[in-house]
Amino acid sequence: MPDVREFLDKMDRPPTRYIRVNTLKTSRVELADRLESKGFLLKGTAIPEVLAVEKAPIATGATTEYLLGHYYIQDLSSCMAVEALDIAEGQAVLDIAAAPGGKTTFMAQRMKNAGSIVALEPSERRARSMSFNLARCGVYNTCIFRMNGTQAEKLEMKFDRVLLDAPCSCEGVIARDATRKTSHTPEDVDYCSNRQDSLIEAAARMVRPGGILVYSTCSFAPEENEMVIDGMLHRHENIAVEPFGHGISGLTSFGGIEFDGQLKKARRFYPHLHDTMGFFIARLRMG
Amino acid sequence: MMTTTYRRPTREERTLINRALDRWGAFDFFQDKVILVGDSNKGSRQVCLVPKGIIIESAIVQAQPYFAGLVLGQLRKQFMPSMQGADLFARVGRRNEYYVTVNKNAEQLVLYGRDVMGDSIVEASDRLGENEVVILLNAKQEAIGIGRTRFGGKSLLQKGKITVTTLADAGYYLRGEG
Predict the structure, then answer these.
(1) Do residues B80 and B108 share a domain?
(2) Which of A64, A147, B47, B151 is the most buried (most CB within 10 A)?
(3) Would you state the pLDDT for residue A227?
(4) pTM value?
(5) ipTM of this predicted complex?
(6) Domain A4-15+76-286 in CATH: superfamily?
């Protein structure tokens, strides 16, 4: 990891807060005008819909605009996963482990509410919470199935785009939730890694030939990131990692293990370099 | 656990839905959209806007999702809009007498679920009767609530009296999430 001391310092400071403009209901200019008239100070980011909140005189989640669904509070890194999907209107998209729906609502707005999104979420509580977020954001091109990603084949469908934002050890969100420093153990990383292997295999089976699978986590651990993708590349000849224009290169070796050279095209996001949560993204094209 | 079974509306239900869409000035917008009825195990009938597309339609029919599309409202004897339905109608519909605009102060109160005083109504039609369901708009013409009139005509604007009862409001999302 580059600049470890800066990284550690950054992880102990409150993270930058971001909002994503919901273009299904408003525009970036309109929203910025309204929030700035209330004393907010906003700054643009690498994604046009995402604004950094530099000053907030009231809670970001308590404005009229928030209640009306004009924006969603979401980290920039999380939006990068949707950016990597390269979604177009009218496509069919599968979102695995979708709750609370931040990425789903971003997909829906990129699709202009056209096409269709199938979102999978096994927990009823989280699926219900997600339905609130979809409703608030005015999304109507989405269905939620209470289903684990490994059961996705039961749907008997193929998709143009599949997003697997895999359940992970969440090391990358320590700046937002310091309890993560002590609440997780190396055994958790192993557990997550095994589950991620099963999920990505299931996700890959859901992609149409020529379609894109985006795999992401909010973990720094290579066991949950490059090793998962490396395993896929070894097991499937028809999968290629595609470049993505944000973040820095994925690892090509770790702990004496050499990974497939394509892992250079995977992307890592670090708090001290990109002012985001820790994040990993691999964009895979299915042959 | 709540479960919902999705199906196409019956002819009678379709008539009720069409009347409702017409009432809110949004009939044209929905002509190329797919509307399903979701029967919940708790007895309600939800009217849902779902995407047009082979993938979703077959998914809904075959696999029955936990939740589909956007709930526009509920069918009882009549159609009662949901908050998200009101929001969509206000964005795509033609304004008519069933929309009532309130001032900024009332906007904040409505978002806390409070009723509307006559003196805080900025715009309402003379043709509006008593006991009518209306969509409450803020000054920017965004739906902030759903109300029921306690008076009709010019009496709706009388000072010092609650003239519209708030039935639902956009603040519910925040309170409901908690």
Answers:
(1) no
(2) B47
(3) 97
(4) 0.94
(5) 0.91
(6) Vaccinia Virus protein VP39 (3.40.50.150)
